[in-house]
């Protein structure tokens, strides 16, 4: 197919040319002084993105590995943890914990909002014997487009006076949505390379608090590849305990430079701007955004409900074949019922408008009932935020 492919799934996100060029460099000796300088730079530089002064561990794996690492470094078989059913990814993280013999108490959810801080506080307050060892939350639920209020969940844990560890999955929010590992006293932040960091899949992260490190000295789940203690000891010299993903680390160095140049706050407000334009388009089409709580609308992706008896996957297939655009599929219990528009990473106004044109024409081509004018509504939203900015200046 001619022209550029519009990759608008909610990650992996498109890789900027600067990062592709940085990765396409000759590999170096991972035991050399040159590598140690790179290792130190990316291990240290990543801290700014997590907003932490504590160790950040980098694994050569997809995000699922970092999920597993958070569990096996802190918990023991038979431990109880509290999770919120925000969507497909919370459900997958729960499955991993269960496979390790951890008892997961799940606060049920309807997949249309984030984790409820009040429900977490209520459950922790009831837990007088302090059986719950960790609260585990997905910050940005990539399957639904709902972003949980992590700062409020921290307050809920504190209000209950509960000593549980706090673990947060930021795989689809890091470097796109405001996030503060230290300020919000998160004990383990889990992340991945292929979304806000604009890298290929293949790196994953754990930012680790002192409390989590202390837990890792006495918990009993076995681990080897994922072990923090070994990793952090060897990272001190800029090295890794096994062969690192050297070329992805070149890419990470470049991604961190790009985020520094734009400024994290500007990155976050760009994502907010793109997301509200996308929601304006959905509204103009007469379709419904899956996330029902405006305070939790995701800056990273928008999940759109199909009208009843219209199959989202058929629509996505037609849009791909006719207009060369990839949209995200519905996952788990919303499969076929929603499609997801990714607007994260390198995305800007025109890239989003192109994608929205593809959606609008795709809806028409697939015979999905809708009103036209979504792209115009998104443009008006951009113009409105521009004139708002000028008025403020
Ligand atoms: N958590 C969230 C929120 C995700 O979006 C994803 C992947 O999309 C994962 C976890 C799993 O990460 P990976 O597919 O990189 O293993």
UniProtKB/TrEMBL annotation:
Q: What reaction does this enzyme carry out catalytically?
A: glyoxylate + L-serine = 3-hydroxypyruvate + glycine
What cofactors does the UniProt entry give for this protein? pyridoxal 5'-phosphate
* Record keyword 4Fe-4S present: no
Under Pfam families, the record lists: Aminotran_5
Q: Name one GO biological process term.
A: glycine biosynthetic process, by transamination of glyoxylate
Query: Keyword set for this entry?
Result: Aminotransferase, Pyridoxal phosphate, Pyruvate, Transferase
PANTHER family, A to Z: ALANINE--GLYOXYLATE AMINOTRANSFERASE, AMINOTRANSFERASE CLASS V
The record's family statement is: Belongs to the class-V pyridoxal-phosphate-dependent aminotransferase family.
| Protein name per UniProt | Serine--glyoxylate aminotransferase
The organism's lineage is: Bacteria, Pseudomonadati, Pseudomonadota, Alphaproteobacteria, Hyphomicrobiales
Q: Gene3D superfamilies, alphabetically?
A: Aspartate Aminotransferase, domain 1, Type I PLP-dependent aspartate aminotransferase-like (Major domain)
* Top-level lineage group: Bacteria
Q: Does the keyword Transferase apply?
A: yes
Q: Which InterPro entries match?
A: Aminotrans_V_dom, PyrdxlP-dep_Trfase, PyrdxlP-dep_Trfase_major, PyrdxlP-dep_Trfase_small, SP_NH2Trfase/AEP_transaminase
Documented EC number(s)? 2.6.1.45
Q: Which residues form the Aminotransferase class V domain?
A: 30-330
N6-(pyridoxal phosphate)lysine: residues bearing it:
195
Q: In which pathway does it act?
A: One-carbon metabolism; formaldehyde assimilation via serine pathway
Q: Per its record, what are the GO molecular function terms?
A: alanine-glyoxylate transaminase activity; L-serine-glyoxylate transaminase activity; L-serine-pyruvate transaminase activity
Chain residues that bind substrate: 340
């Amino acid at each position: 197919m001619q022209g550029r492919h519009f990759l608008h799934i909610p990650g992996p996100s498109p890789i900027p040319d600067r990062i592709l060029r940085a990765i396409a460099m000759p590999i170096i000796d991972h035991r050399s002084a040159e590598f140690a300088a790179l290792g130190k730079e990316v291990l240290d530089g990543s801290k700014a993105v997590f907003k932490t002064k504590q160790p950040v561990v980098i694994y050569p794996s997809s995000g699922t590995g970092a999920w597993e690492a958070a569990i096996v470094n802190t918990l023991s078989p038979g431990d109880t943890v509290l999770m919120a059913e925000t969507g497909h990814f919370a459900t997958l993280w729960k499955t991993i914990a269960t496979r390790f013999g951890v008892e997961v108490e799940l606060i049920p959810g309807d997949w249309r909002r984030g984790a409820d801080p009040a429900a977490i506080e209520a459950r922790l307050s009831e837990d007088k014997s302090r059986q719950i060892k960790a609260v585990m939350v997905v910050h940005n639920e990539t399957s639904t487009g709902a972003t949980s209020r992590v700062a409020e969940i921290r307050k809920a844990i504190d209000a209950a006076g509960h000593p549980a560890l706090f673990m947060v999955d930021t795989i689809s929010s890091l470097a796109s949505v405001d996030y503060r590992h230290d300020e919000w006293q998160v004990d383990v932040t889990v992340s991945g390379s292929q979304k806000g960091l604009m890298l290929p899949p293949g790196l994953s992260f754990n930012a680790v608090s002192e409390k989590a490190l202390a837990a890792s000295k006495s918990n009993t789940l076995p681990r080897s590849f994922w072990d923090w203690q070994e990793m952090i000891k060897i990272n001190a010299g800029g090295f890794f305990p096994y062969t690192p993903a050297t070329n992805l680390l070149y890419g990470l160095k470049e991604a961190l430079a790009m985020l520094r140049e734009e400024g994290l706050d500007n990155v976050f407000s760009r994502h907010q701007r793109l997301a509200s334009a996308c929601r304006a388009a959905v509204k103009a089409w007469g379709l419904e955004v899956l996330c029902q709580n405006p305070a939790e609308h995701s800056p990273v992706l928008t999940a759109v409900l199909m009208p009843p008896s219209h199959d989202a996957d058929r629509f996505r297939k037609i849009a791909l074949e006719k207009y060369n655009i990839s949209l995200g599929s519905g996952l788990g219990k919303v499969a076929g019922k929603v499609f997801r528009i990714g607007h994260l990473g390198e995305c800007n106004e025109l890239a989003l408008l192109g994608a929205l044109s593809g959606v609008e024409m795709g809806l028409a081509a697939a015979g999905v009932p809708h009103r036209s004018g979504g792209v115009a509504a998104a443009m008006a939203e951009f113009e409105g935020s521009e004139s708002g900015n000028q008025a403020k200046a």
